[in-house]
């Protein structure tokens, strides 16, 4: 996989960032966030951490030709998971840190479910890559 050299460090940095943001939320923000926002923050951190681990797994899988269906599916999975982390968790962090009425919240709100869909697409695409692509297999 040609992107693996870049993907593994990105996955590791995303995981490290999740740990740092978890600590930040638990200690520095505990008096600033409502209980609902604290739970949202924890959700964002846990999704970021889990999917960073999956990205690291994708980066360390044996290489597949990107021209193959399975290789293309795996490349798509990496892109979908990475963008899903940024959109899903990033938008929740932003929503927790901004006040009601802030204009940016209009963009952040829809980003959360789009990010969730990207994460789902990443998992499905990863499953397709393990199957060897989407073409039916003849026995």
Task: Please give the structural blueprint.
Elements lengths: L3 H24 L7 H26 L8 H29 L7 H27 L8
Helix pairs in contact: 1-2, 2-3, 3-4
Protein name: DUF423-domain-containing protein
Subcellular location: Membrane
Main location: membrane
Order of helices and strands: HHHH
Number of domains: 1
Largest sheet: none
Q: Provide the residue-averaged pLDDT.
A: 90
Share of β-strand residues: under 5%
Pfam family, one: DUF423
Subcellular location: Membrane
Protein name: DUF423-domain-containing protein
Membrane topology: Multi-pass membrane protein
Description of the molecule:
This protein has 139 residues and is mostly helical. It has one domain (4-131). Helix content is 76%, strand content 0%. The chain is built from four helices and no strands. The longest helix has 29 residues, at 69-97. The protein is elongated and about 50 Å long.
What features would you highlight for this structure?
single chain; elongated; 139 residues; mainly alpha
Could you write a compact summary of the structure shown?
The chain is mainly α and 139 residues long. It is built from 4 helices and no strands. Helix 1 runs antiparallel to helix 2 (35-60), helix 2 (35-60) packs antiparallel against helix 3 and helix 3 packs antiparallel against helix 4 (105-131).
């Amino acid at each position: 996989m040609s992107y693996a050299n870049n993907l593994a460090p990105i996955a590791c940095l995303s995981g490290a960032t999740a740990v740092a943001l978890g600590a930040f939320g638990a200690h520095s923000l505990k008096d600033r966030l409502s209980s609902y926002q604290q739970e949202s923050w924890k959700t964002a951190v846990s999704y970021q951490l889990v999917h960073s681990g999956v990205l690291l797994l994708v980066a360390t899988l044996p290489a597949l030709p990107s021209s193959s269906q399975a290789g293309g599916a795996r490349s798509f999975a990496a892109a979908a998971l990475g963008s899903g982390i940024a959109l899903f968790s990033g938008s929740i962090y932003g929503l927790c840190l901004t006040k009601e009425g802030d204009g940016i919240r209009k963009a952040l709100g829809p980003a959360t479910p789009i990010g969730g869909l990207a994460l789902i697409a990443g998992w499905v695409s990863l499953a397709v890559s393990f199957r060897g692509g989407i073409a039916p297999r003849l026995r």
